[in-house]
Amino acid sequence: MRILLVEDDRRVSAVMTSMLQRRGYEVEHAATATAALAAAPCDLVLLDLNLPDGDGVDVCRQLRARSEHLGIIAVTARGEERDRVTGLRVGADDYVVKPFSMAELQARIEALLRRTVRQAPPREVVETGPLRLDLAARTVHVDDAPVVLTRKEFDVLASLARQPGVALSRERILLDVWQTTWSGKHTLEVHVASLRNKLGRPELVETVRGVGYRLRTE
User: Fold this and answer.
1) Which of 172, 171, 169, 139 shows the shortest CA–CA distance to 153?
2) For residue range 181-199, what is the model confidence (pLDDT) as tens digits?
């Protein structure tokens, strides 16, 4: 999950970048409005409204005009009601007033991602190679033999099966299955290892280096 942090205070940006990276996010920092608008595409923007070369409200408006699906959280010292209303009206999805705790910001990020993550249309049955997954009945067969999975193992497999052949990030799968992107260090890896073992065909769940996992379609 890629976050663009727009913050001109170097001390604040350094602390936020470090803490976000520790939570598994990829972070790009922009200290100015110009840099923010020139940044590469991302999943979510944490936007300070007080910038040295422009008003963050204008940046928010332009970012929203580019994409209606981009997550934007205004993170600012402007705490007056009129500022909140303005920020939300020009396109911010949420508004956090400084000072704030990282626990609160994390919760708001997760809530926003749950609302903005766009999934492919649900499929009742997914068949790929020897694997047959019935999402409604929550059953799994490999080479026509039933496979018994725990609830979380099935949910991990279902997350991948909804978009077979597509590499899903670790954070995306955690959000789908655990409704958070911040879990135990090896939670997902342990479940994937157990899932591969039970399927008896470990190659079905591929590791995509630097990204996450993918369900093979061949």
Assistant:
1) 139
2) 666 658 899 999 999 999 9
